């Protein structure tokens, strides 16, 4: 009889035995659970931080590459002083402001309803590479 086994106990019956290859022992399962719980605790604050930064990101209207251009009623970028178009925004809009305007139809800060509608249409048409696109894309992602 070896020194590691207790008398009258078969090594295959031991709850922490490695006798069955590939089957995790009780001790290993408990250790994996402790590691997983630690990962959940550290991931949740990161998601909360990401959600907060999404609401604080900014979307310029129009993007810096077309600064000075006007926005028409359909959200298109047109030359400055085009009749019926709106001047560029004096400041970028925060993600939270844009999300609220898109969800409820409320106006963007500092705008009337027609200008806000045109700006929101412009924002919805943003494409990769344009200023504010990443912020807008982040607003579209579901939060869990």
Write structural notes for this entry.
The protein is elongated. The protein has helices at residues 26-56, 95-104, 113-124, 133-140, and strands spanning 58-59, 70-71, 77-78, 93-94. A hairpin with a 5-residue loop joins β2 (70-71) and β3 (77-78). It has four helices and four strands, in the order αββββααα. It is mainly alpha-helical and 144 residues long. It has a domain at 57-140. It has a two-stranded antiparallel sheet with strand order 1-4. A two-stranded antiparallel ribbon has the order 2-3.
Record the SSE blueprint.
Blueprint: H1 26-56, E1 58-59, E2 70-71, E3 77-78, E4 93-94, H2 95-104, H3 113-124, H4 133-140
Antiparallel strand pairs: 1-4, 2-3
Spans of 5+ residues with little confidence (pLDDT < 50)?
38-49
Mean pLDDT: 79
* Biggest β-sheet strands, sense, barrel: 2 strands, antiparallel
**Net shape:** elongated
Radius of gyration: 29 Å
Helix % is: 40-55%
Please report the distance between the alpha carbons of the first and last residues. Answer: 57 Å
**Alpha plus pi helix count:** 4
Structural class by helix and strand composition? mainly alpha
Physical arrangement of strands within the biggest beta sheet = 1-4
Helix-strand topology string: HEEEEHHH
Number of strands: 4
Percent of sequence in beta strands: 5-15%
